[in-house]
Amino acid sequence: MRESTAISVVPQPLWDFGPAFQHTGYGYLWWRGKFRNGNTDTIFAAGWGGQFIFIMPKINMVVVTTGENYSNGYADILDMVNRYVLGSVYSNFQTKEDE
To answer: How many domains does the chain have?
Structure first.
């Protein structure tokens, strides 16, 4: 996994990742970066129209999305994962730590 997601080029994306995700690299068709929520290291592949695979090794999570998001770029999907999926994960961690 490490070799297949190693940075091979650092392209300038043609789209906006939005405020939810910090892009840090690209290699072998996989993007690397961090979600704002929990500063979560992430590797993801993106397909046409909202097809994504997100791998977050430190929290043992894989998120897959499918959809019909042909005109809004990546920002909407990245925001959804950051806000709802990771928001739920980290609020659950905080609740368990508070008990």
So the answer is: 1
